[in-house]
Amino acid sequence: MSAKAPLGPPYARGAMAYVLAGGRGSRLMELTDRRAKPAVYFGGKTRIIDFALSNALNSGIRRIGVATQYKAHSLIRHLQRGWNFFRSERNESFDVLPASQRVSEEAWYLGTADAVYQNLDIIEDYAPRHMVILAGDHIYKMDYEQMLAQHVESGADVTVGCLEVARSEASGFGVMHIDERDRIIDFLEKPADPPAMPGKPDVSLASMGIYVFDTPFLFDLLRKDAEDPNSSHDFGKDIIPAIVKGGKAVAHHFARSCVRSATEQEPYWRDVGTVDAYFEANIDLTDFVPALDLYDKEWPIWTFAEITPPAKFIHDKDDRRGRAISSLVSGGCIVSGAGVKESLLFTGVRVNSYADVERAVILPYVEIGRHARLRNVVIDRGVAIPEKLVVGEDPELDAQRFRRTSKGVCLITQSMIDRL
Asked: Boundaries of each Glucose-1-phosphate adenylyltransferase/Bifunctional protein GlmU-like C-terminal hexapeptide domain copy (predicted)?
């Protein structure tokens, strides 16, 4: 057994972050054909999971576990390459925990709670005083130390990270009904008539899928839940509602611990679980003053950084000028006599002469052929766009060839290109 974690603040040093990263992410369509949702690229060079992991690291947490399940190879490879700097001699640890039938030879992870239960022995070896349970598929910056401090000071059995959302939009969330002291008095899963917050009739409080527990309490709860044949072994469906009814559950408001630089006006949190939401959150980063500041040195987003040459822009004729306007262009990219506007080019993208790209999210190592015209697209990794391909100008033709969303965004994969 490891030495006991310290009792007093900062509480993060004695905590363990446990990231649930096994989701299918089916609403991202072909983007998750080969990778889990947390492994999907975001923001020019990072993956979605890097935000939860960076929040934990920046908060002072030095013990992290990541539970993986579906299509996990891309995710595990990213974690091995980008998050391998933790040192056991500094009482640090980083464990990748695939579903491996460790409890039963017939059971993979049955739910989010079971994904923790099946690894209790590993967690016990580290003896953390608190467990911070995190979803690995949201984009936000948050100081978990603030949430841990509230948990300790309130004497809660569980503290639930909560986000204020418009009541009219809250039916898609798990909604917390709280009293004036932030104690959760009811938990409603996707209610038709969401309860309003005290004093805010048009606002509801939605769960972020972030929970803080005292470790012994959580272990007892998970062992009881594992023995319940009627449980779905899920935090949102089983564990949290049970504590609300029989214990003390307290809401932690995201606005209290959201990390914001001087340029960020509002607390930023996004679920990028659909192609439209994913596209919009990426394109938002091209704004003159984006709602999410990726340039904040006080709260860096850590990731695996490939060794690449600088981005390159070549040719300077009126009809053949390499340029990028209001765009994020990563290392290894070459914009050769082409125009790029309001777009994100991930590592190693090449845009060839006379191509015109606008409002595009282009994942690593894509090559765009000459004279192509692309607008409102998401292009998967490694796709070769043929010369003179036009996307974003004929909705009916786009829908026949590619995955076109209700908002007019086209997702393009290599298999779609091969069928042309």
From this structure: 309-412
